[in-house]
Design a protein that fits this description.
Number of helices: 6
Low-confidence stretches: none
Structural class: mainly alpha
Largest sheet: none
Shape: flat
Order of helices and strands: HHHHHH
Number of strands: 0
Helix content: 55-70%
Radius of gyration: 15 Å
């Protein structure tokens, strides 16, 4: 098996692996993979992936049961570094979060505002 440090950065799937672990309910593994990925990145690589990293951190927070932190991370993942909105999966993540919160707090009125 290859060491994560030996995988070329342009083929590194660490973020997707961390997201998968988080969605499968293993936030500790997800955080470990994310930390390993971040150690291997240069500042430019981290900046280019900042929105996706925020979404991964949101998924990890959600898996840990920290819904308030998850909302904050997902909102951070809604806009690129230049402040313009993203057109990726942010609305899908907000929908997943709203659905989960509705199941956890059935009597609460849940509204997730977008910027």
């Amino acid at each position: 098996m290859l060491s994560p440090d030996s995988v070329p950065l342009n083929r590194d799937q660490g973020l997707f692996l961390a997201l998968t672990y988080a969605r499968l309910g293993a936030p500790a593994k997800a955080q470990a993979v994310l930390d390993s990925w971040e150690r291997r990145q240069d500042p430019l690589g981290r900046r280019q992936a900042a929105t996706f990293v925020a979404r991964v951190r949101g998924a990890i927070a959600l898996a840990e049961g920290k819904s308030d932190s998850a909302v904050a991370y997902f909102r951070r993942g809604d806009s690129d570094a230049d402040g313009l909105p993203t057109h990726g999966c942010a609305s899908l993540e907000r929908g997943r979060l709203t659905s989960l919160l509705a199941r956890l707090r059935p009597s609460a009125q849940i509204t997730i505002r977008t910027a």
